[in-house]
Amino acid sequence: MSATTLMSTYNRLPISFEKGKGAWLWDTDGKQYLDALSGIAVCNLGHAHPAITQAVSEQASQLVHTSNVYGIVNQDKLADRLTLLSGMDKVFFGNSGAEANEAAIKLAKLYGHNRGIAEPAIIVMENSFHGRTMATLSATGNPKVHAGFEPLVQGFVRAPYDDIDAIKAIAANNANIVAILVEPIQGEGGVHIPAATYIDELRSVCDEHDWLLMLDEIQTGIGRTGQWFAFQHSNSTPDVMTLAKGLGNGVPIGACLAKGKAADVLQPGTHGSTFGGNPLACAAGLAVLNTIENEQLIGKAEQMGALLHSKLTAALNDCNKVANIRHQGLMVGIELTEPCGILTQQAMDQGLLINVTAERVIRLLPPLVITDKQIDIIVNTLNSLIRQL
Q1: Is 231 assigned a catalytic role?
Q2: Whole-number mean pLDDT of the chain?
Q3: What confidence score (pLDDT) does residue 191 get?
């Protein structure tokens, strides 16, 4: 496989796929693979789901794009559905998770300026990931992502993840804070799941100081964790929430949702997008939400995630290479005691697609339509590979 005209921005695996069906993919040589990654939490409904295919095909035959100079019927419909499911008030549509987080960062900055804070700052977490634009990579808590792009965008204050005392200490010493931006579960950082009270405690601190609580649900949203949105495992609602990935099942779309005092911060001229929320992308988004509801996949994500976790735990219980196995719904991390990046290629050689994040965490993000038999394939393959590592 050679593409000398492409910029070398990816260390691609030596494989290309030409078709998919459900949780299965086939490469250009006809070899079959079980996709336990879902395009990194994008294809929650699997590949070539007939409802998504039909919605995109029908919309493409009618109208793909007009721009946000005009009203977009599908955009209104999708915004209505998302606010109903989440309890939020308003939605801005972009094309990606990074764009959704850019909108949230701009919203927080403007919120601070409207309160008379000249240099508004946002608390972000160590080991977080929010994107690769200049603002979102600056918010990201990973020095490797920052390298070579200094000076970074200013106005971010870093705190340890899942440490409410650190947040309170910052609050006591920094009058410029206007918001907290946090992932309910850190995906790229290694599938780190915080204490059950963490989001509620952050909500309490934000209420006390009139800050915005902004949740990056780009990887956790749209049913991945066994709720529509991961914050619904808590007793709190954010002021801002960002979505992308699973919302379009592969069709590029991002969304920044806002509630209450955050809902009307952005006004005409403060933000925009040429392609954001176009008729095609929103048709896909509507079809995704309808399909998840019709096939009752929220409950299935919880059920199948518990099944996958229990089978992995049983299979690897006596393996001293495994430090921890954690999950929330169908978001699973197997932390090993040593770096294990080689397992990505080894698993692919055996027809299983996974990835390794934070050097030693096997990340599994199978589609919500995964079956019991497919879970057994994942468990048996990984059990063998980990023990041979």
Answers
A1: no
A2: 97
A3: 98
